[in-house]
Backbone:
Protein backbone atom coordinates (compact mmCIF):
# COMPACT_ATOMS: atom_id res chain seq x y z
CA UNK A 1 0.00 0.00 0.00
CA UNK A 2 1.41 3.43 -0.92
CA UNK A 3 1.90 6.25 1.61
CA UNK A 4 -1.11 8.15 0.33
CA UNK A 5 -3.36 5.06 0.42
CA UNK A 6 -2.25 4.62 4.06
CA UNK A 7 -3.11 8.22 4.77
CA UNK A 8 -6.55 7.72 3.22
CA UNK A 9 -7.16 4.84 5.63
CA UNK A 10 -6.49 7.27 8.50
CA UNK A 11 -8.86 9.81 6.96
CA UNK A 12 -11.58 7.18 6.64
CA UNK A 13 -11.10 6.22 10.29
CA UNK A 14 -11.90 9.82 11.18
CA UNK A 15 -8.81 10.36 13.30
CA UNK A 16 -7.07 13.05 11.26
CA UNK A 17 -7.35 16.72 12.26
CA UNK A 18 -6.03 17.56 8.77
CA UNK A 19 -9.16 16.62 6.79
CA UNK A 20 -10.86 19.68 5.32
CA UNK A 21 -13.35 18.19 2.89
CA UNK A 22 -14.32 14.94 1.25
CA UNK A 23 -15.20 15.40 -2.41
CA UNK A 24 -16.57 12.79 -4.80
CA UNK A 25 -13.10 11.81 -6.07
CA UNK A 26 -10.70 13.30 -3.57
CA UNK A 27 -9.90 14.53 -0.09
CA UNK A 28 -8.71 18.04 0.65
CA UNK A 29 -6.22 17.97 3.51
CA UNK A 30 -4.10 20.60 5.20
CA UNK A 31 -0.50 20.32 4.06
CA UNK A 32 2.12 18.96 6.44
CA UNK A 33 3.92 22.32 6.55
CA UNK A 34 2.82 25.91 6.39
CA UNK A 35 5.88 27.52 4.85
CA UNK A 36 3.24 28.94 2.53
CA UNK A 37 0.29 29.85 4.73
CA UNK A 38 -2.72 27.80 3.65
CA UNK A 39 -0.77 25.10 1.82
CA UNK A 40 -3.04 22.10 1.24
CA UNK A 41 -3.06 18.88 -0.73
CA UNK A 42 -5.88 17.35 -2.72
CA UNK A 43 -5.47 13.59 -2.88
CA UNK A 44 -7.29 11.26 -5.21
CA UNK A 45 -9.34 8.61 -3.39
CA UNK A 46 -8.47 5.89 -5.84
CA UNK A 47 -4.89 4.68 -6.28
CA UNK A 48 -4.24 6.08 -9.76
CA UNK A 49 -0.64 6.69 -10.74
CA UNK A 50 -1.06 9.19 -13.54
CA UNK A 51 -3.68 11.74 -14.57
CA UNK A 52 -3.79 10.13 -17.99
CA UNK A 53 -5.05 6.90 -16.43
CA UNK A 54 -8.26 8.59 -15.29
CA UNK A 55 -11.54 8.20 -17.07
CA UNK A 56 -12.13 11.50 -18.96
CA UNK A 57 -15.30 12.26 -17.00
CA UNK A 58 -13.46 11.71 -13.72
CA UNK A 59 -10.62 13.92 -14.99
CA UNK A 60 -13.06 16.76 -15.47
CA UNK A 61 -14.80 16.29 -12.14
CA UNK A 62 -11.51 15.93 -10.29
CA UNK A 63 -10.14 19.06 -11.91
CA UNK A 64 -13.18 20.97 -10.66
CA UNK A 65 -12.37 19.73 -7.15
CA UNK A 66 -8.82 21.06 -7.58
CA UNK A 67 -9.94 24.48 -8.74
CA UNK A 68 -12.77 24.76 -6.22
CA UNK A 69 -10.30 24.05 -3.43
CA UNK A 70 -7.76 26.52 -4.80
CA UNK A 71 -10.38 29.22 -5.14
CA UNK A 72 -11.41 29.13 -1.47
CA UNK A 73 -7.79 28.82 -0.29
CA UNK A 74 -6.85 31.86 -2.37
CA UNK A 75 -9.79 33.85 -1.00
CA UNK A 76 -9.41 32.84 2.66
CA UNK A 77 -5.67 33.49 2.84
CA UNK A 78 -5.70 36.43 0.43
CA UNK A 79 -2.98 34.76 -1.61
CA UNK A 80 -1.56 36.59 -4.57
CA UNK A 81 -1.08 33.47 -6.70
CA UNK A 82 -1.77 29.74 -6.52
CA UNK A 83 0.78 27.19 -7.74
CA UNK A 84 -0.41 23.69 -8.60
CA UNK A 85 2.02 20.83 -8.36
CA UNK A 86 1.17 17.29 -9.48
CA UNK A 87 4.46 15.46 -9.94
CA UNK A 88 4.39 11.84 -8.78
CA UNK A 89 8.12 11.75 -8.09
CA UNK A 90 7.90 10.65 -4.45
CA UNK A 91 4.53 8.89 -4.30
CA UNK A 92 2.93 7.66 -7.51
CA UNK A 93 -0.66 8.31 -6.45
CA UNK A 94 -2.36 11.29 -8.05
CA UNK A 95 -2.37 14.31 -5.72
CA UNK A 96 -2.12 18.03 -6.14
CA UNK A 97 -0.08 20.31 -3.93
CA UNK A 98 -1.93 23.62 -3.73
CA UNK A 99 0.61 26.30 -2.85
CA UNK A 100 -0.65 29.79 -2.03
CA UNK A 101 2.07 32.31 -2.90
CA UNK A 102 2.36 35.79 -1.47
CA UNK A 103 3.82 38.98 -2.84
CA UNK A 104 6.62 39.35 -0.29
CA UNK A 105 8.05 35.95 -1.19
CA UNK A 106 7.20 36.34 -4.87
CA UNK A 107 9.15 39.59 -5.01
CA UNK A 108 12.31 37.51 -4.77
CA UNK A 109 11.16 34.26 -6.37
CA UNK A 110 8.44 35.20 -8.85
CA UNK A 111 9.61 32.85 -11.60
CA UNK A 112 10.69 30.02 -9.32
CA UNK A 113 8.52 27.11 -8.32
CA UNK A 114 7.59 26.68 -4.64
CA UNK A 115 9.85 23.65 -4.20
CA UNK A 116 12.84 26.01 -4.24
CA UNK A 117 12.08 26.43 -0.50
CA UNK A 118 11.65 22.73 0.24
CA UNK A 119 14.71 22.59 2.51
CA UNK A 120 12.84 24.93 4.88
CA UNK A 121 9.47 23.15 4.87
CA UNK A 122 10.35 21.03 7.92
CA UNK A 123 10.80 24.17 10.00
CA UNK A 124 7.15 25.09 9.38
CA UNK A 125 5.58 21.76 10.30
CA UNK A 126 1.80 21.93 10.68
CA UNK A 127 0.73 21.16 14.24
CA UNK A 128 -2.65 19.57 14.94
CA UNK A 129 -3.83 22.88 16.43
CA UNK A 130 -2.84 24.84 13.31
CA UNK A 131 -4.46 22.20 11.10
CA UNK A 132 -7.71 22.47 13.06
CA UNK A 133 -7.70 26.26 12.73
CA UNK A 134 -7.32 25.99 8.97
CA UNK A 135 -9.97 23.27 8.74
CA UNK A 136 -12.46 25.35 10.73
CA UNK A 137 -11.88 28.35 8.46
CA UNK A 138 -11.88 26.50 5.15
CA UNK A 139 -14.59 23.92 5.64
CA UNK A 140 -17.56 26.35 5.78
CA UNK A 141 -16.43 27.88 2.48
CA UNK A 142 -16.70 24.45 0.83
CA UNK A 143 -20.04 23.34 2.25
ZN1 LIG B 1 -2.03 4.91 -3.31
Residues:
Amino acid sequence: MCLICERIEDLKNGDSPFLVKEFKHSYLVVGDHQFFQGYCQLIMKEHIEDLTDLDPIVQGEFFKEVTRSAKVIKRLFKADRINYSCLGNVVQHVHFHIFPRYKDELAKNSKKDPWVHSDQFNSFETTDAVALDIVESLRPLLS
User: Anything to note?
Assistant: The chain has a mean pLDDT of 96. The chain has four helices and five strands. Helices lie at 3-12, 56-77, 103-109, 128-138.
